[in-house]
Amino acid sequence: MLEQKLNDLKKTLINYSSLVSNMVERSIKGLIKKDTSILYHLIEEDEPQANDFEIELDELCMIIIVKYQPKAKDLRMILMLLKMNNDLERIADHAVNIARGAISLIERPYTKPLTDTRKMARQVLSMLEQGITAFIHEDVVLARRVCEKDTIVDELYVRVLKKSITRMAADRTTIASILLLLNISKNLERIADLSTNLCEETIFLTEGKVIKHHFSPLP
């Protein structure tokens, strides 16, 4: 009975992760295509659904702990799923932040093409999708690959930041738009960090190894 409950819990988390991944994808799509209908749908429809998932998963975990008093590996799984639930909730929040920022940015003329932000967005979405895939299939190798990509996103964010400072110094009329773009980029960077968290938690679930403070790249 406990095993079935844990499987049901994992399936619910997978459904939640799919919704969150779609939210991130749509926030980026709405920004790039300047389509506010996509962005408003995310805020008005997807965000409440994501909140409901988060609450449901928390309650399911608590019920299982109280009713079945799991130990050892089963308890470790529930605690990790709780952490993943929290990470997904934060990713959903960042997707909403991007959507809100994109709506404001669309109302202003872009000062430059979103080249670096697009690169960041593609990399972040890939990390999130692969992180979810690694969790579903308990693929430790893929999870480690995703962890390695976090530095790429960090480097892109620094590039966006440096270019933004230069542009704002050269033309003060661009400050409002660039600050919005910087906030969007920062949210993307945080999604990359949280995608890395998901992969670290997948590795712990599968191998029982904590790699958070001593991650070593694959050869």
Question: What would you say this structure looks like, in words?
Answer:
- By secondary structure, the protein is an all-alpha fold.
- The protein is built from seven helices and no strands.
- It is elongated.
- The termini are far apart.
Question: What's the short story on this structure?
Answer:
This protein has 219 residues and is mostly helical. The chain has helices at 2-33, 36-68, 72-106, 115-137, 140-148, 150-170, 175-207.
Question: Strand count, sense and closure of the main sheet?
Answer: none
How would you name the CATH homologous superfamily?
Phosphate transport system protein phou homolog 2, domain 2
Uncertain spans, ≥5 residues at pLDDT below 50?
Answer: none
Indicate how many domains the architecture comprises: 1
Question: Which structural class should the secondary elements be placed in?
Answer: mainly alpha
Q: Which features characterize this protein?
A:
219 residues; mainly alpha; Methane Monooxygenase Hydroxylase, Chain G, domain 1; 7 helices; 85% helix; elongated
Topology overview:
Blueprint: H1 2-33, H2 36-68, H3 72-106, H4 115-137, H5 140-148, H6 150-170, H7 175-207
